[in-house]
Each structure stands twice: as C-alpha cells, then as structure tokens.
Amino acid sequence: MTDEKDSSNEKDNDRHKKRMQQQKAKVDERIAAAQEDKGLLLVLTGNGKGKSTAGFGTIARAVGHGLKAAVVQYVKGGWECGERNLLEKNGVEFHVMGTGFTWETQDKDTDIQAAQAAWEHSKKLLQDPSIDVILLDEITYMVTYKYIDLDEVLAALTARPKDQHVVITGRACHRSIIELADTVSEVRPVKHAFDNGIKAQKGIDW
Ligand code: ATP
Ligand code: MG
C-alpha cells in the first residue's frame, strides 16, 4: 500500500471513529434520561406475518427472567400452537377462546358468548398484580366485530396494575388502543409463501 493510501485510510478511520463516538454519546444521553419504570402496553399490528410470534417471543423473554405470564388467545377452533406446548410446561397459563364446540357452529351469538367469556377471563388477569405480562393474542378482531366493547377494553387496560405489561396482537388495531399504547409496531407484508401456494408449515406458521 502506498503512503498516500495509508493516510487516506487513517483519515477515514478517524472520521468513522469520531462519528461513532458522537452517536454513542447521544445514545448514552438518551439512556440516562430514560428513568421511568412502568408496565408497558405493546401493540403488534399490520398485515404481515410475525405479530403472534413476536407476542409469544415477548412472553418467552419474560418467562426467561422469571416473570409470571399469561396468554389469552382470541382464536377460532382447536388451532394447535407450538408456543403453547412449550410455554405451558414453563408455568404460563393459557386461555383459548375457541376450544368449545359451540365455536364450530359459526353462529354469531355463540361467537359473541365465547369472546365475552375470554374477555371476562382477560379482565381478571388485568386486575391481578401477580401477573407480570399478559398476551392478548388476536384481540383486535373482537373489538372490530364489536364482540367486546372498546371502552371496556380501554378502561381495563388503563386501570391495570402499574407494573403489568400487556401485549396486544392482531390486524387493524383500533386507533384508540394505539393511542393508549406505549410501543406500537406495524408488520408490513413484503411477501408470504402462501401466495405461492405453499401450505402453512408446522413450527413456522403455527
Ligand atoms: P404468526 O402467527 O405467524 O406470527 P401473525 O400473527 O402475524 O402470524 P395472523 O394474521 O395472526 O398473522 O395470521 C396467522 C396465520 O396466517 C399464520 O399462520 C401466518 O403465517 C399466516 N399469515 C400471516 N400473514 C399472512 C399473509 N400476509 N399472507 C398469508 N398468510 C399470512
Ligand atoms: Mg396472529
């Protein structure tokens, strides 16, 4: 390498180092400024794949730290779910809305009943300070269909124990829930295997 190239590399390196130091100082400042501890409301919404897996991932992360977690799945039918097999063994309580045979009738009244029962259970969890993290998987649809009352959901979320974290997943989350939330991520579909005729795969899709 020529001397000229050497010194230009050095300059590049110096500039890079300086930029990184400035960036680190800014990040450190923001970390130092973030002082508050509180239970978070997280929303994972959008049309792309990954909302429920991220929700369960958060539960796994919490359980890994010894926190107490509970899951309510607002899903139809006896949909098997790999995360349940794993997390139940690790002390996570599951409540699945659609396990009752009535759900299979596709009758609106029984759908509402099942949704209401799951919501009653969710409300108990939202009043229980011993539960550190709750996943309300696919609850957004219940609000959209008006199977459960939006104002009740907002009230229960607002009145929950101060340190309790809640994760909400599902497409088209109501804007009032998004406004109430602390952290909101929207998963955007770029492509999905299903569009190319590929079946849902065990361990990846369920
Ligand atoms: P996952 O459970 O895989 O994290 P999700 O919770 O983001 O997905 P849902 O809308 O709840 O998505 O749909 C659940 C199922 O539908 C999953 O099997 C998922 O792979 C599939 N799915 C999700 N998004 C799409 C999409 N854009 N096109 C086709 N199938 C999808
Ligand atoms: Mg989902």
Automatic annotation (TrEMBL):
Class in the EC hierarchy, top level: transferase
Localization per Swiss-Prot or TrEMBL: Cytoplasm
Pathway participation: Cofactor biosynthesis; adenosylcobalamin biosynthesis; adenosylcobalamin from cob(II)yrinate a,c-diamide: step 2/7
Disordered: annotated segments: 1-29
SUPFAM superfamilies assigned to the protein according to its UniProt record, in alphabetical order: P-loop containing nucleoside triphosphate hydrolases (SSF52540)
EC numbers on record: 2.5.1.17
Keyword Chaperone attached: no
Keyword Ion transport carried by entry: no
Biased composition (Basic and acidic residues): 1-15
Record CDD domains: CobA_ACA
Keyword vocabulary terms for this entry: ATP-binding, Cobalamin biosynthesis, Cytoplasm, Nucleotide-binding, Porphyrin biosynthesis, Transferase
Molecular functions (GO terms): ATP binding; corrinoid adenosyltransferase activity
TM ranges: none
Superkingdom, natural source: Bacteria
Chemical reaction(s) catalysed: 2 cob(II)yrinate a,c diamide + reduced [electron-transfer flavoprotein] + 2 ATP = 2 adenosylcob(III)yrinate a,c-diamide + 2 triphosphate + oxidized [electron-transfer flavoprotein] + 3 H(+); 2 cob(II)alamin + reduced [electron-transfer flavoprotein] + 2 ATP = 2 adenosylcob(III)alamin + 2 triphosphate + oxidized [electron-transfer flavoprotein] + 3 H(+)
GO BP: any one term: porphyrin-containing compound biosynthetic process
Major localization class: cytoplasm
GO annotation, cellular component aspect: cytoplasm
Residue span(s) of domain Cob(I)alamin adenosyltransferase N-terminal: 10-31
PANTHER family cross-referenced by the UniProt entry: CORRINOID ADENOSYLTRANSFERASE
Annotated function: Required for both de novo synthesis of the corrin ring for the assimilation of exogenous corrinoids. Participates in the adenosylation of a variety of incomplete and complete corrinoids.
Protein family according to the UniProt entry: Belongs to the Cob(I)alamin adenosyltransferase family.
Protein name (Swiss-Prot/TrEMBL): Corrinoid adenosyltransferase
Organism: Paraglaciecola arctica BSs20135
Gene designation: cobO
